[in-house]
Amino acid sequence: MERVKGIIAAAATPLHADFTIDHDKLVGHCRRLLDRGCNGINLLGTTGEATSFSVAERLAAMQAVAKSGLPLDRFLVGTGAAALADAVALTGAARELGFAGALLLPPFYYKGIDDGSLAGFVETVIDRVGPRGLRLYLYHFPQNSGVPYPPAVVERLHRAHPDQLLGVKDSSGDLPYARGLAKSLPDLDVFPSAEGALATAKEDGFAGCISATANITVEFAARGWATLGTPEGAEAIREAAAIRAALTATPVISATKWALSDLYRDESWRRLAPPLRALTETEITSTRDRLGRTRYSELCQ
User: Average pLDDT in the 85-105 region?
Assistant: First the structure.
């Protein structure tokens, strides 16, 4: 199985009125993202509100996508959990169902974990799931998890498990961190989380980006990735980055789901699982105003 690279949308998760996952809409949304140009999908990540769902709910969503006929070799799936047994169950299921990789948050409840203990957690997951066919990506998002993946831990794990540990998603916004990993570990796939990072992807050695706002910017972002190093590519990346900036001025998951409700003409997309909330009417107005200064309207046609 080839590694997924390029524009990977951190897919939002549609919800029923009781906050359970709407599998049919989720499959349809993932299909649209691939049809519009995404190279891959990150299912059940932060934007997908994964940690708001039980293990059973997450497994059910994974199984629904696996049965849909969508190309699982283009899907990464979030399998991180605070409990070791949950992380093992989800990561094992990702492999058995045929997903291209499992995206693993660090154990995020206890803070101040030393490097050895953090590496030990990941290695225990690898040992319990079994290394055969395991394709693992570390998910670095210290602002949310409170637990970083320090470069020394990433290097230690990758050198010990080069066939299992294939990449890192860096949602910290700290491009020097991402650049450092890509430079020191050139066979590791490093994905920043913002479309603007694509502008220097070749120089920095990035494998693409995994972005929440790619749910919306997919056409611009995909065009930028496909034509990197050209004036057309640079312009497309600027447009994607401008739309991202307009959305991230308010809570990004809420703004992304509001924009999807606008694109799909379906207000159910505004639902978020508690404790997250939808945008307020004031926030919607300000978001519309900011998007009006971008080429967002072209995506609505």
Answer: 98
